[in-house]
C-alpha cells in the first residue's frame, strides 16, 4: 500500500516538472494597465517589441492578455475599505435588562461556567450527551423505581416523576414570561394556580375552586372542609329544556317573541297627530291675517285723500261726516 502511494506521488511530481512553470500573480509594469472594474475591462498599454513579432506574435499577444487579465482579477479580489461613513438605518439596540438570576449571581459573585456537552454515563460506560436524544443518565427508561421509605406504597412513582417534570417545565416557562414582562415593564396575569407575589382572598378562593374541579370526577367526589363555604367562582349551570315540551308553554314563548317584535314597530298616536294638525291650521290663519293688514304708511295716505274703511259712505273723520248730514 505504501509503495502504491509513493509511485503515485512520483508520477504527479514528474508531470508537474515536465509542464511549463506557472507564472506568479505579480505583473511587471502594472501601472501601465488601465482598469475599468465596472465593465470588467483591462487595457494593456505596454509597448510591443517589433523585432521578431511575425514569428512569435501570437505568444506575445497571449502574454499581454494574460497580464491584463491577472491585474483585473487582482483588483477584483481586493476588498477596499469604505471611506464614507453612512448613517445607521435603525437606532442602536438598547442593552437588555438582566434577569433575576443574573442580578442574584452578580450580587453573590457567582460566575457562569459553561458545561461540557458530553457526560460520562455509568450504566453504558461511555460518554453521552448531557441532554436530548440518547442522553446520559436517562431515568425515563427505567422499568422499575424504588419506593422511598416515607412514601405511600400504593402511589404511582412513574406518574409522580412525570408530574414533577411538568411542574418544572411550567415553572421555567412562567419565569421566562416574567423576565420578558419585567423588561417591558408589564405584569404577567395570574390565572388559576399561577403563583403570585401577594395573592388576594378572591385569588385564593378561585385557585381552590380550580383545584376542586381538577379531578377526574370534576369535583363531584372531592372532600370538602368542615366549614368550607360554597365558592362563587363555580360558574352557572346550564339548563336544557326537554325535547318534548308542553304546547301551552310553547305558545306563550311564541307570543312573547311576537310581542317583543311588535313593540319595535312605531305606533301612531291619533290625539297627538290631530293636535299637531290643528296647531298648524291656527298658525296658517294667523299668517294670513298678518298679510291682509295694511301698513301704517298706507293708513296715513288714505286719511289725507279722504278714503275711509270699506263699507262706510264718505269716509273721512267724524267731524266732516256730521257737517255733511246737516
TrEMBL record:
Spans of biased composition, class Gly residues? 308-317
Composition bias (Basic and acidic residues) maps to: 221-231, 278-290
Spell out the residue ranges making up region: Disordered.
1-25, 221-251, 276-326
Where is the protein found, in the record's own terms? Answer: Nucleus
Enumerate the Gene Ontology biological process terms: ribosome biogenesis
User: The organism sits in which domain of life?
Assistant: Eukaryota
Report keywords, A-Z: Nucleus, Ribosome biogenesis
Which stretches does UniProt call biased (Basic residues)? 291-302
Please give the InterPro entries that the UniProt record associates with this protein: Ribosom_reg (IPR007023)
Q: Where is the composition biased (Polar residues)?
A: 8-25
What GO cellular-component annotations does this UniProt entry give? nucleus
Classification via Pfam families: RRS1 (PF04939)
Q: Where is the signal peptide?
A: none
Q: Could you say which protein family the record assigns here? A: Belongs to the RRS1 family.
Q: What does this protein do?
A: Involved in ribosomal large subunit assembly.
* Stated name of the protein: Ribosome biogenesis regulatory protein
Amino acid at each position: 500500500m505504501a509503495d502504491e502511494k509513493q509511485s503515485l506521488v512520483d508520477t504527479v511530481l514528474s508531470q508537474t516538472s515536465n509542464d511549463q512553470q506557472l507564472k506568479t500573480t505579480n505583473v511587471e509594469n502594472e501601472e501601465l494597465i488601465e482598469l475599468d472594474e465596472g465593465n470588467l475591462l483591462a487595457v494593456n498599454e505596454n509597448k510591443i517589441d517589433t523585432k521578431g513579432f511575425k514569428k512569435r506574435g501570437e505568444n506575445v499577444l497571449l502574454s499581454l492578455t494574460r497580464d491584463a487579465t491577472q491585474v483585473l482579477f487582482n483588483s477584483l479580489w481586493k476588498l477596499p475599505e469604505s471611506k464614507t461613513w453612512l448613517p445607521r438605518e435603525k437606532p442602536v439596540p438598547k442593552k437588555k435588562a438582566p434577569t433575576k438570576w443574573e442580578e442574584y449571581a452578580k450580587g453573590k459573585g457567582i460566575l457562569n461556567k459553561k458545561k461540557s456537552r458530553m457526560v460520562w454515563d455509568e450504566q453504558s460506560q461511555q460518554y453521552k450527551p448531557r441532554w436530548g436524544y440518547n442522553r446520559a443518565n436517562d431515568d425515563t427508561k427505567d422499568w422499575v423505581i424504588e419506593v422511598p421509605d416515607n412514601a405511600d406504597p400504593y402511589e404511582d412513582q412513574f406518574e409522580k416523576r412525570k408530574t414533577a417534570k411538568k411542574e418544572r417545565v411550567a415553572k421555567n416557562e412562567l419565569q421566562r414570561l416574567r423576565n420578558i414582562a419585567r423588561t417591558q415593564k408589564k405584569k404577567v396575569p395570574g390565572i388559576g394556580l399561577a403563583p403570585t407575589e401577594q395573592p388576594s382572598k378572591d385569588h385564593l378562593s378561585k385557585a381552590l375552586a380550580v383545584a376542586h374541579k381538577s379531578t377526574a370526577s370534576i369535583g363531584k367526589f372531592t372532600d370538602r372542609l368542615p366549614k368550607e363555604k360554597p365558592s362563587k367562582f363555580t360558574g352557572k349551570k346550564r339548563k336544557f329544556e326537554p325535547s318534548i315540551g308542553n304546547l301551552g308553554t310553547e305558545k306563550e314563548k311564541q307570543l312573547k317573541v311576537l310581542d317583543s317584535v311588535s313593540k319595535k314597530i312605531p305606533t301612531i298616536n291619533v290625539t297627538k297627530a290631530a293636535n299637531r294638525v290643528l296647531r298648524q291650521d291656527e298658525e296658517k290663519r294667523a299668517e294670513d291675517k298678518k298679510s291682509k293688514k295694511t301698513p301704517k304708511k298706507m293708513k296715513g295716505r288714505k286719511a289725507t285723500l279722504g278714503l275711509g274703511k270699506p263699507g262706510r259712505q264718505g269716509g273721512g273723520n267724524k267731524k266732516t261726516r256730521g257737517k255733511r248730514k246737516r
